[in-house]
Specification:
Strand content: 5-15%
Largest sheet: 7 strands, parallel
Low-confidence stretches: none
Shape: globular
Strand order of the largest sheet: 3-2-1-4-5-6-7
Radius of gyration: 17 Å
Number of helices: 7
Helix content: 40-55%
Distance between the termini: 38 Å
Order of helices and strands: EHEHEHEHEHEHHE
Length: about 260
């Protein structure tokens, strides 16, 4: 078994489920440890317990829409995990809605999430720079930040994810001299808990089958599909890659079926 993350600690913002949790599992399986940040509750507790069966894992409970809780999470991160040199920002949700139907709360929900991630990343990076050990960050962006899809109107979501793509480029430039690499993945339709809130439970399987046809490879993605790409971007195997937005999308951006 590969041990390329031996002695490395990963922080995952939004790590209680989906691709964030799978990435934490990958890193622990290859010798590392993980800190997952997520909303307080049983899901976070269960995820941490599951990870702990394979290696060292910790959690930081915070509702990322609550600025006081984010500030407390920053404090915990700085005090308890200044040795983390890997970070994944996988927090997100997706609620397609026509532009004219958006209310202020809809817009704010997406951008509050980016605000939380911005300052949590800043906290982790500050410790990386102080430690002088370099590091690697991966943001989870989106295919919807590249282009609009008529069937899923997503103006505020797309705007927020495009912001993460821009942050990725900016941090890659600013942090290169510190030996910190910054990349992003841009998934298309990926079957994670994110889509559980888009479609009713009795329609989810049918919706995924229908959406599969949009992807040249003929299926929607899985959390492990994305986690494999994210893990690569965190690993020494991608040491000469920074500032990249990697399309992990079943060929969606290559063309149309």
């Amino acid at each position: 078994m590969a041990t390329d993350f031996e002695g490395k600690k990963l922080v995952v913002i939004g790590g209680a489920s989906g691709m964030g949790l799978k990435t934490a599992e990958n890193v622990i399986a290859r010798g590392g440890s993980a800190v997952i940040i997520g909303r307080p509750g049983q899901k976070l507790d269960d995820a941490t317990t599951g990870l702990s069966r394979a290696g060292d894992a910790w959690s930081i409970a915070a509702d990322l829409a609550n600025r006081d809780q984010v500030a407390e999470a920053q404090k915990q991160l700085a005090e308890d995990h200044p040795d983390a040199t890997l970070l994944v920002n996988a927090a997100g949700f997706f609620t397609p809605k026509p532009f004219l139907d958006h209310e202020v709360a809809d817009y704010d929900a997406y951008h509050d999430l980016n605000r939380a991630a911005f300052f949590l990343i800043q906290t982790a990076v500050r410790a990386m720079v102080a430690g002088g050990r370099g590091g690697a960050l991966v943001n989870v962006g989106s295919m919807w930040a590249h282009q609009a899809i008529a069937a899923t109107p997503s103006s505020a979501y797309s705007m927020a994810k495009a912001g993460l793509h821009a942050l990725t480029h900016n941090l890659a430039m600013e942090l290169a001299g510190e030996g910190i690499r910054v990349n992003a993945v841009a998934p298309a339709v990926t079957r994670t808990p994110l889509f559980d809130k888009v479609f009713p439970a009795d329609q989810l399987d049918g919706a995924m089958e229908q959406l599969a046809g949009l992807h040249p490879l003929g299926r929607v993605g899985t959390p492990q599909d994305l986690a494999s790409a994210i893990t690569f971007l965190l690993s020494p195997a991608s040491d000469w890659t920074t500032g990249a937005i990697v399309n992990v999308d079943g060929g969606f951006m290559a063309g149309r079926n």
